[in-house]
Amino acid sequence: PHAAGDPLSTPPAGGAGVSYGRSVQQTQDGGYVIAGSTTSFGNGCQVYLIKTDSSGGSTGVEETARTRLPGTSGLLRNSPNPFASFTAVTYQVPTRTRVRLKVYDASGQVVATLADGIHKPGSYKAVWDGRNGSGTPVASGVYFCSLKAGTSMFTRKILLSK
Known about the structure:
162 residues, mainly beta, five-stranded antiparallel beta sheet
């Protein structure tokens, strides 16, 4: 028997991946409600809700649609490029990792930090408004957006044209 909030971890049937019971709550009839997610490495994840009776038999299963997770880290094209007022920088990470997304000028000086912290697996979008870290508009010109995700590093050229 499991108490409320106990984590479960069992390999799923038929393949690589892990099934995590994130929440286990006992019901008044002696059964359990288990909410969690499954991850099939590189193929996405599913969230589920399972209801059992007092003997442990499943009485209901509800699953969400599969969400595709990125297979690799990457810095995708920013849009628009060139830009006059703002540009959206899209990036992705396949695993929970530390992410640093920074904009540099042509001399290699950091102009702005768009992201700096731990990210869960997924795709993200950061917006740069053509301002430095102090909020001052920067001059038109060529800038470089750099993504460091774990041990991977990517750089793309950005053109600011006012």
